[in-house]
Amino acid sequence: MSVKIGLVYMVIVVLSNYLVQFRINDWITWGAILFPIGFLLTDVINEKYGEKISIDSLRMGILFAFIPTLILVDYRIAVASLIAYFISQFVDIKVFVYLKQKYSNLWYLRNNVSTFISQFIDSFLFFFIAFYGNMNLKTIFTLSLGTLGIKYLIAVLDTPIFYVLTQRKKND
Q1: If you compute the radius of gyration of the chain from its CA atoms, what whole number of angstroms results?
Q2: What is the CATH number of the domain that holds 80?
Q3: In this structure, is residue 172 part of a structural domain?
Q4: 56: which of 48, 90, 96, 128 is 20 to 30 A away, CA to CA?
């Protein structure tokens, strides 16, 4: 199972890394639209199959994404993305597990809080590593904030999807 999910992560990471090179406006890039799906995927896997499968799938996804990402995008973007994605997804998994243990009935809390924390880490870490020295700090900060806003909006909007996907298992 981890390999199949890892392949889905790979597709999300590689396409997002390619699309991050193209701005929609001064605030956001096209990569910001696709990228949050990976965090929804992590939360669904974590809810349905647990922490170990989540971490194993994340590792597989990073491994599978490494070479295609290096081929498609600038080296700095590739390295920044893989570092930021791994760290932020790992934080997402750990926060999700903690909140699930502490507030087991509050599914929306673990889904959104873990995603908000990890998306914050991902956005600022990625843009700083990828573009520091090539862009001024104001532009990096602006892109980070714009991307974070889109990611937060998508996280809130995908909450019902998380519920539907995770409740099926409980009712089966």
Answers
A1: 16
A2: 1.10.1760.20
A3: no
A4: 128
Dihedral class, residue 50 (left if φ above 0, else alpha if ψ from -120 to 50, else beta)? left
Q: How many CB atoms lie within 10 A of CB 160?
A: 10
Domain around 10: 2-167
* DSSP type of residue 103: S
DSSP conformational letter for 150: H
- Count how many domains the chain has: 1
Residue 37 lies in a domain: yes
CA torsion sign for 13, 15, 18, 19 is negative
Instruction: Determine the Cα–Cα distance for residues 171 and 48; give it in Å rounded to an integer.
Output: 12
Per-residue pLDDT of the chain (172 residues; tens, 9 = 90+): 657 777 787 788 888 878 877 888 877 778 788 888 888 888 999 999 999 998 988 888 888 888 888 888 888 988 998 899 899 999 999 999 999 999 989 999 999 999 999 999 999 999 999 999 999 999 999 989 988 999 999 999 999 999 998 885 454 4
Backbone angles phi, psi at 50, to 5 degrees: 100, 175
pTM for the structure as a whole = 0.86
